[in-house]
Design a protein that fits this description.
alpha/beta, Quinone Oxidoreductase, Chain A, domain 1, seven-stranded mixed β-sheet, six-stranded mixed β-sheet, 19 strands, 29% helix, globular, binds nicotinamide-adenine-dinucleotide, binds zinc ion
């Protein structure tokens, strides 16, 4: 079938992206779903820094690629062996889980091995590519390729949600919430009264703030270099906020510190602000060349832990229904993470907004 989608042509084009236009929105051909795959009509797709990292080359992926990995939509077709009813709303997750490898047996702690290999190759979990433009193969992004009117994905890339969950909320559950919430709940396991700090307040960091505030775990401290972000963090439930410099001067530390900025300086800030006995969870994805400085002595003397967390160390089919139910009960206002609603044609300008650090989640809405 014919679809419209945003294809990254080339890595590393210069800013502003609104002028260099690294993404082309055009007509593509989408093959029908194969065995174990589904056709989804996309309703909403969020922009995450991990999309920008492909555009600017921090995360090297094969191109041309149809970007987007935080999305939700309606099942419109199924391949053989799929258990989902047509019309079901699904949340896309950005790492399919084969269900059988040692990663899948780790209860979310380590990524699926074949899922990661497929993501690196730009294919679906089964190894196929279902997208073409003028006969030329277009790669899938993290098994999702959500910046399009429709997509074909593996059944193991999605989790069904209720029809009452609005599309933009469902989309954001798939990356920002799964990653930020899971960094806290799965990778760190907080207990009541723990002070929680989040360094880097984009969509992922704000989701961690919202999760901590919704669960009423303890004081929630937001840290970002941009003062506007600090204001928003307060609105989402942060009890105090600091720029990195103010934080260093204050000497404030927390039992659990989540780094969600994606650079070595932020990681060092997070490390310095972790209390004795505490845990630093890092989810940011800096450039592969980034290096940070650590004092091994401090780690030992203060009995501290550093944890890396991919996909919020989540089991999506277990965790998404939990977040969905918290949202339904009115105690987890995920819609507050949506800072603007845009169209697919505005994608290059939206990448500039993201790079400027202005956005939380810009969500593309499709009116088919
Ligand atoms: N581990 C995972 O599974 C996973 C999933 C999604 C995103 N990510 C990564 O998480 C990071 C955050 O993603 P996002 O979409 O929320 O990004 P974003 O660009 O929306 O937000 C990043 C925030 O960090 C702030 N920041 C930058 N440097 C800082 C510093 N030194 N100190 C304090 N704040 C600083 C920025 O002002 C911005 O508000 C990115 O690196 C992204 O690639 C990882
Ligand atoms: Zn993401
Ligand atoms: Zn697996």
């Amino acid at each position: 079938m014919k679809i419209r989608g945003a294809v990254l042509e080339e890595i590393g084009r210069s800013r502003p992206f609104a002028e260099s236009r690294p993404l082309t929105v055009s007509e593509l051909e989408l093959d029908p779903p194969g065995e174990g795959e589904i056709l989804v009509r996309i309703e909403a797709a969020g922009l995450c820094h991990s999309d920008l990292s492909v555009v600017d080359g921090n995360r090297v992926r094969p191109v041309p690629m149809l970007l987007g990995h935080e999305a939700a939509g309606i099942v419109e077709g199924v391949g053989p062996g799929v258990d989902l009813a047509l019309g079901t709303r699904v949340v896309m997750t950005f790492l399919p889980r084969c269900g059988e490898c040692s990663g899948c047996r780790s209860n979310g702690r380590t990524p699926c091995i074949p899922g990661s290999a497929a993501n690196n190759a730009g294919t679906l979990l089964g190894g196929d590519v279902r997208l073409r433009r003028d006969g030329v193969e277009i790669k899938h992004h993290l098994g999702v390729s959500g910046f399009a009117t429709h997509t074909v994905v593996d059944r193991r890339s999605v989790v069904p949600v209720g029809a009452d969950v609005p599309p933009a909320v469902a989309a954001v559950l798939g990356c920002a919430v799964l990653t930020g919430g899971g960094a806290l709940l799965n990778a760190a396991s907080p207990t009541e009264g723990d002070t929680i700090m989040v360094v880097g307040l984009g969509g992922v960091g704000m989701a961690a703030v919202l999760t901590a505030a919704s669960l009423g775990l303890g004081d929630v401290i937001g840290v970002d270099s941009m003062p506007e972000k600090l204001e928003t963090a307060r609105e989402l439930g942060a009890t105090s906020v600091y720029t990195p410099q103010e934080l260093a001067e204050s000497g404030v530390r927390a039992q659990i510190v989540v780094e969600a900025a994606g650079n070595a300086r932020a990681f060092e800030t997070a490390l310095a602000a972790t209390a004795p006995g505490g845990t630093t969870v890092t989810v940011g994805l800096p450039s592969p060349d980034a290096r940070a400085s650590i004092s091994p002595l401090t780690l030992v003397a203060e009995a501290r832990t550093i944890v890396g967390s991919y996909l919020g160390s989540a089991v999506p089919e277990r965790d998404i229904p939990t977040y969905e139910q918290m949202w339904r009960e009115g105690r987890f206002p995920v819609e507050k993470l949506v800072s603007s609603r845009i169209t697919l044609d505005g994608i290059n300008r939206a990448m500039d907004e993201l790079a400027d650090g202005k956005a939380i989640r810009q969500v593309i809405e499709f009116d088919h």
